[in-house]
Amino acid sequence: MQTDNKMLLIDGNSLTFRGFYALFMQTERFVNQQGLHTSAVYSFKLMLDKVLDLVKPDKVLVAFDAGKKTFRTQKFADYKGGRKKTPAELTEQFPYVKQLLDGYGIKHYELVNYEADDIIGTMAKKAEAAGYQVTIVTGDHDLTQLVTNKITVALTVKGVTELEFYTPEYLYEKLGLTPKQIIDLKALSGDTSDNYPGVTKVGEKTALKLLNEYESLENLYANLETMKKSKLKEHLEADKEVAFACQDLATIRTDAPVSISLEELDFEGQDAEKLQAFYQELDFNKFLSELRQTEVKNDVEVHVLTKDILAKLSLKKPVSLYVEMADENYHTADFWGFSLNVAGKTYASEDLALLQEPKLKEYLETTPVDVFDGKKTYTALKRLGITLAGVDFDLLLVSYLLNNTDNSNDLGTLCQKQGYLKVAGDDDVYGKGAKKQKPAADIFLQHLTTKALAIYELKEKLMAALVQNEQADLYIKIERPLSLVLAQMEISGIKVDRAKLEEMGSNFTELLADLEQRIYQAAGESFNINSPKQLGTILFEKLSLPVIKKTKTGYSTASDVLEKLTDYDIVADVLQYRQYAKLKSTYIDGLLKVIAPDGKVHTRYTQTLTTTGRLSSVDPNLQNIPVRLEEGKKIRQAFVPSQDGWEIFTSDYSQIELRVLAHISQDENMKQAFKDGIDIHAKTAMNIFNLTDPSEVTANMRRQAKAVNFGIVYGISDFGLAQNIGISRKQAKEFIAGYFDLFPGVKKYMDEIVQKAKKQGYVETIFHRRRYLEGINSKNFNQRSFAQRTAMNTPIQGSAADIIKIAMIKMQAELTKRNLKAKMLLQVHDELIFEAPQTEISILEELVPQIMDSAVDLDVPLKVESGHGQTWFDTK
């Protein structure tokens, strides 16, 4: 029978083993959030894609071993007996390789008492008889015995993706053997992998020579008497039974009792839904992205919104709105277009003036809508003269709360992670990286249409998921209202004194020039101070300073290395030079570049970036203005009120994370200390230094105790604490033990939260903000330790972040209610920054601490410290 059909047979065990060792031995990063190793599955997937593309088969089967006991072990008890136990990291992956195959729509099969080789041999012969061209993919040379004019064996050469194709001709060219002689080669020389002996003292070279002369094992023994007397002849005579037994063991069966037929093996392509869920479970984001690109269905009907259509349109809830801009900075970006979904029907337009039409403008200013990124939408509409009434459903925020490791700001990417494949990612439409230019109108409007439609179609599903996770209040009472508070803060901006910054920049330039000359003088020559290579040569070769650490490229000049050498003036000067250079480039020059025409900087708060729930700030990052270095602190002198007769007012929580820890751990000693207003760092110092009188606590003792207090919050080890405060590891261990003696409830909390995390795979804040923990059950010590530390500190850090968010929402509401002119401008970690007329400062001194203190009801009091002055710097 002649046919053009193709059959692909894959040795599942061989390829899974090879894939595991190819990647696992190189890196251990292939672990999903639950600690499952995935290197073998990852490699298998790469191999599968390659061979499917090469062979383009009509039928596919992947064969696996059913177990260690087979008819061969019954014949020879030590068959494969020398093999090491399969690592647990590999064993756990076999079920997932089979799940991958299910997603690909590929049949996998195993047969009790037989090996994968026998299944492949049997099905190869069946397919050959039916006229198929057969390709076998394996890492096992034994299968080359199956090659014929219609059966090709593709052997993995390197890893699992480089293949060498064996046909009868290639086999003969490579080894000078026929397929049948492969069996006899094994019979004579044995197989160390499968652990059968062959003939004593006969290796592969001798076996090849014998087969070249006698052609087969049977012919060799039929003519053994004619062979000259030799040790080889003696071994052959003595091991005749062994040779034929090994021949039997090496022979792949082509008549195994398989229960599947060729008709069951049709390859009809992938099941995108199954693969999507599978890739998500294993954290295969690269494959997930590739799948989405192939599966996204941009076939949504486009309705172009015009003035006439808008006039006739009945605006009724729910309405989804998406505004597209030319880049991420929505304070300055050009508008490209918008889309509107009204009760399920979507419209798109490049004409932004339509948003300002009285009918639509009135609706947006009176009725909450559904959006993707409420803060961006509110700010963008404000630039168009529209004050958004509010937001009901925010797809970006809800996606983030459901899984804060999915912190993309791309609507298409987040939708695809939810299994919604109607929206392409922006990179696929606009090109990789920053948006370059708007595509053709038909493509652009299609893309906008799918975005508004996605918001509409995902709302019910994702809101239900929030309810199931007990996160509806977190969204409705904290994140959603906060997004509009942040929008108002961003729009207000904070004034920056350009002249002051420029003056500071000039001072830094002079300081850097002086330091540069001092460094050159000490070095005896000028060189590039910013070049680690040149600096290393000067310090460790020319000046012969002690070498602390070497790297592959030379001497390490990292800050932590140089800090051990500060007794040398040149090193102290280099460290100071670096500090000033960074201050000037990052903060002085950086801020000067982003001052808007109104004399202010308008940062953007990213609400969906961190896994703890903390806000971050970009363009510029105002949460990173230095506080420890005195020269860095002075940069705050450039932040001033926007009007004469106004001042900057600040309030910040004191030790909020430790207070949250006291509440969460319910440690009685810690709770009482905060209730009594005791200095918690001094109390800890007294315990770890065995003091009885608070007056005995020195400033250095308190500093070390403070490092212990905050280190414990972050799950610090004795090694880490020793490094932080410059003590021995033994002493650090004693400090930590003393801390837990004083606060046993904290130790109990930490043990319990780790166990809870191991059981459920995530931890929560007081307000049910979740953080899923990659590696909490990992066998890798480093991954597991990191996840455990994260489990300990996330509920504390995250709850503290939630508390200040609640305070911000309440504070904004109170400012509005009282009709105060004061404005909340910035949030920097645990601090809120306002500007207000001097006449309102006394009101803020009473009001802000009151609101912040009562933001939540903890079992310990919150403490707020406030200040005010002509600049941000002066408030302290």
Automatic annotation (TrEMBL):
Residues 293-467 form the 3'-5' exonuclease domain. The keyword DNA damage applies. Residues 207-234 form a coiled coil. The keyword Repressor does not apply. It comes from the Bacteria. It catalyses: DNA(n) + a 2'-deoxyribonucleoside 5'-triphosphate = DNA(n+1) + diphosphate. Residues 5-268 form the 5'-3' exonuclease domain. Its EC number is 2.7.7.7. Single-chain monomer with multiple functions. Belongs to the DNA polymerase type-A family. PANTHER family: DNA POLYMERASE I, DNA POLYMERASE NU. This is DNA polymerase I.
